[in-house]
Write a structure and sequence with these properties.
single chain, 232 residues, alpha/beta, TIM Barrel, three-stranded parallel beta sheet, globular, binds fe (ii) ion
Length: 232
């Protein structure tokens, strides 16, 4: 179960603002299942990317308020807050420059890159984040196809200071065998510093539970994870 993690810091649980939960009912169903599995803190992370999901603090806050009203009534000891999962594009660079960033907490910012195409400026964007005082939390490094054949990129980005966040669904083999293999390898190499569900649908919950049966999940649970940090 998930009580060893306690916090989900990557989840698309806010209704109707990205490709995640489609309704308040679906959000409630996801939260209920999470609560029953031992999660007591949820940091909702809707997508912000200029070509698909141009969310703003205002759009996220509106969706968050619709969920938090129910959450505080039904699960009084559940902490719920919001951040974003930023796609590293030009819009993100503008937000960095304008200092309009929604961190997970403290200076930790969840960021992703393209899963299919090599993004030549990704490392420069991470560097810019770090120079501005942010700590990148790299969403699902195991899912970036262009990286699979250039293993040094993992070491380079890890050594820059990014925290690698593995998806529970990868440990369940949900995205494919290669994603699972890379996730397991990064755990073996002790490079994973955070865990997230990256849930988009309540119907994916069986796979979250399946992930907790993996020996790699047990191994992760014994590591000092960002999930167990106090909120700043
Ligand atoms: Fe995500």
């Amino acid at each position: 179960m998930l009580h060893t993690i306690g916090t989900d810091l990557h989840i698309h649980v806010l209704p109707g603002i990205d490709d995640g939960s489609r309704s308040i009912e679906e959000s409630k169903s996801i939260i209920t299942q999470h609560y029953q599995s031992g999660i007591r803190r949820i940091i909702a992370t809707p997508h912000i990317r200029s070509d698909f999901f141009l969310n703003t603090k205002a759009s996220i806050l509106a969706a968050f308020n619709s969920v938090v009203e129910t959450a505080s009534k039904d699960w009084p000891d559940l902490e719920i807050s919001f951040a974003a999962e930023y796609f590293a594009d030009d819009h993100f660079v503008e937000l960095l420059e304008r200092r309009e960033i929604l961190p997970l907490f403290d200076n930790k910012v969840l960021v992703e890159t393209s899963m299919r195409l090599e993004q030549p400026f990704f490392k420069q964007i991470l560097r810019k984040m770090i120079d501005l005082g942010w700590k990148p939390v790299l969403a699902h490094p195991e899912r970036y196809r262009p990286w699979w054949n250039t293993r040094t990129i993992y070491d380079e980005i890890y050594e820059m200071g990014a925290i690698f966040q593995v998806n529970l669904l990868s440990l369940a083999g949900k995205y494919g065998p290669k994603q699972q293999e890379v996730a397991e390898r990064l755990i073996m190499e002790d490079k994973i510093g955070a865990v997230g569900s990256d849930l988009h649908r309540s119907s994916q919950y069986a796979d979250v539970l399946k992930a907790t049966e993996s020996p790699y999940f047990t191994q992760l649970s014994e590591r000092p994870l960002l999930n167990r940090n106090e909120l700043g």
